[in-house]
């Protein structure tokens, strides 16, 4: 299987480094100011949620990770869908403590995804994941979880193996994965540098397939942090992270907000009304640097509540998602939120780190991946949540 290209993309955790030293300094200063500002505005927000164990009200997205000796439902040997860079076991990750945790929401339990139940529920239906390599990461987790009962058959892939379709024959279920890292139109397919983003046009890779699906899971991600030039109405209106180009810096939140608005606008005007799940921003856990300058993630335990500090950039992106999600709800969409932000934030131990390659030579300080997730790993919980949301959605519909 020509996996080369796919792997290469996975190895690019997505943020383009800037230009010269001078630009970096300006950026650093900017980042410091931003950091100070964001801490000011997010501190009250962080304490706003009552994290106490006593709270009995069930919220699937708030809770803690508890030790669980039962371990994952699949392994590197039982599942064939795991991409090499996330196959931490095969790649030789020595510490496997990260496999023995279970998400425990306050006030209730989250059931692990029951493959048979999921397949029965989805019989004759179709589900598509639209987004970037983190969505692919989650799709591979889902394929692994389902493969205990039935192995999906690949029935379509595009030239670069980025978009794929699987079929589960005994259940007549279609699972799609559509590569659309910005959700909106961009020049990403042509070149990863000098990216042009069209803030008033959607990426037709997914809009052309939209009507085929009953369920949609979508998300934006770290691609919005890249150097990008923004177009609106056939005119360059500004950019993000493009010092030296004499363009107005509008921020990575500007393009992401526009993208979500456009997506929900498209969906609300379409006569096709699938159930749409917005998956929240996924936090990265680079420490002592960023992905391109030696950042690492060597932790072997989840964080406890209050032990971490939200990355200011992650916090900004997540907040705007929540705002746009609320706006989307007003448009009468069948919209649900898969809010993995908080529970993922608590899992700095769940990333491949240096084990994104086979038995890396640690003495050479290989570039680490602290953004994608090991399979099996904490990302399996996202699919437990997805199952929960879909079942709830069905119950809601039945009630009317
Ligand atoms: C799974 O990982 C273990 C090491 O944790 C390794 O011994 C085994 O060969 C791997 N299985 C496959 C199919 O690669
Ligand atoms: C699935 O489709 C087949 C053929 O159209 C039909 O016989 C069956 O009842 C359907 N099952 C469900 C659960 O909709
Ligand atoms: C499979 O499901 C599709 C809907 O997704 C339906 O149109 C088709 O009739 C089903 N085929 C069979 C053989 O059940
Ligand atoms: C787009 O540009 C055209 C002319 O270039 C102008 O007439 C129109 O008002 C613009 N539309 C928006 C939404 O800015």
UniProtKB/TrEMBL annotation:
Locations listed in the record: Golgi apparatus membrane
Transmembrane segments: 21-39
GO terms for MF: xylan O-acetyltransferase activity
InterPro entries: TBL (IPR029962), TBL_C (IPR026057), TBL_N (IPR025846)
Membrane topology: Single-pass type II membrane protein
Residue ranges occupied by any Trichome birefringence-like N-terminal domain in the UniProt entry: 56-109
Domain Trichome birefringence-like C-terminal: residue ranges: 111-388
Pfam families given in the database record: PC-Esterase, PMR5N
Keyword set, alphabetical order: Golgi apparatus, Membrane, Signal-anchor, Transmembrane, Transmembrane helix
Superkingdom per UniProt: Eukaryota
GO terms for cellular component: Golgi membrane
Homology family: Belongs to the PC-esterase family. TBL subfamily.
Protein name listed in UniProt: Trichome birefringence-like N-terminal domain-containing protein
């Amino acid at each position: 299987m020509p996996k080369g290209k796919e792997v290469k993309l996975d190895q690019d955790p997505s943020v383009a480094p800037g230009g010269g030293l001078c630009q970096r300094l300006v950026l650093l200063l900017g980042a410091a100011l931003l950091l100070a500002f964001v801490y000011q505005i997010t501190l009250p927000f962080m304490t706003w949620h009552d994290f106490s164990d006593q709270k009995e009200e069930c919220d699937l997205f708030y809770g803690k990770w508890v030790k669980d000796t039962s371990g994952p439902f699949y392994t590197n040997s039982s599942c064939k869908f795991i991409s090499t860079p996330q196959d931490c076991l095969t790649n030789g990750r020595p510490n496997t403590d990260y496999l023995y945790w279970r998400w425990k929401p306050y006030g209730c339990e989250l059931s692990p995804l029951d493959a048979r139940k999921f397949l029965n529920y989805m019989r004759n239906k179709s589900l598509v994941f639209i987004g970037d390599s983190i969505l692919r990461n989650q799709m591979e987790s889902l394929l692994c979880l389902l493969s205990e009962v039935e192995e999906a058959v690949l029935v379509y892939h595009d030239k670069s193996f980025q978009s794929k379709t699987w079929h589960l024959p005994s259940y007549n279920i279609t699972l799609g994965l559509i590569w659309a890292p910005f959700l909106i139109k961009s020049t990403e397919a042509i070149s990863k540098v000098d990216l042009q983003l069209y803030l008033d046009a959607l990426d037709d890779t997914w809009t052309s397939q939209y009507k085929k699906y009953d369920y949609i899971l979508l998300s934006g991600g770290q691609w919005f942090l890249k150097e990008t030039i923004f177009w609106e109405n056939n005119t360059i209106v500004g950019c993000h992270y493009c010092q030296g180009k004499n363009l107005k810096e509008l921020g990575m939140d500007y393009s992401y907000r526009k993208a979500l608005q456009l997506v929900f606008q498209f969906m609300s005007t379409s006569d096709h009304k699938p159930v749409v799940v917005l998956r929240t921003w996924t936090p990265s856990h680079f420490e002592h640097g960023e992905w391109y300058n030696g950042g690492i993630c060597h932790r072997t335990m989840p964080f406890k509540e209050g032990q971490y500090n939200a990355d200011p950039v992650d916090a900004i992106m997540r907040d705007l998602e929540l705002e746009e999600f609320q706006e989307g709800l007003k448009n009468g969409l069948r919209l649900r939120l898969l809010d993995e932000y908080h529970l993922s934030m608590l899992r700095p131990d769940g990333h491949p780190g240096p084990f994104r390659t086979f038995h890396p030579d640690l003495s050479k300080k290989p570039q680490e991946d602290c953004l994608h997730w090991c399979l099996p790993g904490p990302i399996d919980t996202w699919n437990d949540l997805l199952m929960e949301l879909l079942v709830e959605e069905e119950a809601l519909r039945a009630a009317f």
